[in-house]
């Protein structure tokens, strides 16, 4: 018979602390939802109060308000993600499975890039994009995103590819398979969890980025991203309708929720696999 667990002060304190942390974490999200279904006047006069009736008008206006910026953000994320995954898979395979001169030096340089703070690269990136004539275009975001988001992905992919069994690749080479065939038909299918992990982390980072789009896209609202439009207005640089802003935040979060939820199983597998093999 299972012995009853003794409930002590430490057990109660840990549970109370967990509940308190969960409350602190989720309370802002609850308030965001509460704000999105109230008129702006009611938000200002009774911020913590519950609405007497659901004010759907906020969501109707928010769809028109953020539909174009969300489309811009998704376009940038999709094109950037394609470039990131191509570079990450090829570079990770080269570092993890192939032997060539200067491999350790190149990989050390990749690791060294991680030591450079993101803010130090803003001015050089701006100068490069400006000289290329790409300011106020989606490519002003896409090219720096591909260059910046690939580093962590290469490290994860290299660790994953290096941990794959050699027997699979040796058997394929005995049958006459080329190096590219081994990469495309063996390594890439097996690396789906790690590539999805890289993809999710990259998309979340790019979609939520505010600093670089604000610097690179200074033209009209037609080219601006979701975070630019909503954060600028939330800071008082446009509309002051907080109910509209709250509804816009909720609508803009839906693409990320769909992308993350649909790939969550592979994301967890990739994180665990990368941690174990690394």
From TrEMBL:
Name the source's superkingdom.
Bacteria
Residues annotated as transmembrane = 12-33, 73-93, 105-127, 139-161, 182-207, 244-268
Entry membrane topology: Multi-pass membrane protein
Record organism:
Faecalicatena faecalis
Q: What does UniProt list as this organism's lineage?
A: Bacteria, Bacillati, Bacillota, Clostridia, Lachnospirales
Q: Which family does it belong to?
A: Belongs to the binding-protein-dependent transport system permease family.
Residue span, ABC transmembrane type-1 domain: 70-263
Q: Just give the chief location class.
A: membrane
Ranges in coiled-coil conformation: none
The protein, known as: Carbohydrate ABC transporter permease
Where in or outside the cell is it found? Cell membrane
Q: Which UniProt keywords apply?
A: Cell membrane, Membrane, Transmembrane, Transmembrane helix, Transport
